[in-house]
Amino acid sequence: MKKIVRHTLSLVVCMTAVVLLSGCEKLTAPTIENTSVVEVTPGVINAKATMTSKEIDDYGLIYSSKNSSPTLNSKEGEVKGTLEGSDFAAEVTLKTNTTYYFVFYATNEVGTTYSTAYKITTSLYKPGQDDNPFPNL
After folding, report:
1. Parallel, antiparallel, or unpaired: how do β-strands 87-93 and 99-108 relate?
2. How far apart are CA 43 and CA 5, in angstroms?
3. Within a domain: residue 128?
4. In the predicted model, is pLDDT for residue 122 greater than 90?
5. For residue 7, is it within any domain?
6. Res. 70: pLDDT tops 70
7. pTM attached to this predicted model
8. How many structural domains does the chain have?
9. Which of 46, 44, 31, 43 is nearest to 105 (CA)?
10. Contact assessment for residue 109 and residue 57, using Cβ atoms and an 8 Å cutoff
């Protein structure tokens, strides 16, 4: 009788473990897709990406005018932007007529994922007639 109870108890414990473990999803590193970095006016950059993961603890856009593959440790600047669902968006104003490298990043407890680097040279700002606050002088 003791053997039957012991085996039954072992079976219940094993089945409970299987049920509990089968319901767990394995956490994976974030993915970054559908990225775009576009200059909308001289020195103003709009950046968008899709960042997916069960949990994202930190995210943003990092940039550098010196390092062609910036990371969180070697960045010149960072923009947190907004993350709504999986849609990330950011805007950054930089010096005109300068080459910058941009990388999106997303972090969770598994690690940090970086996107492919973008290279953009901002336009040279040319003042126009409408920029003169004193046109009659």
Report:
1. unpaired
2. 75
3. no
4. yes
5. no
6. yes
7. 0.74
8. 1
9. 31
10. yes
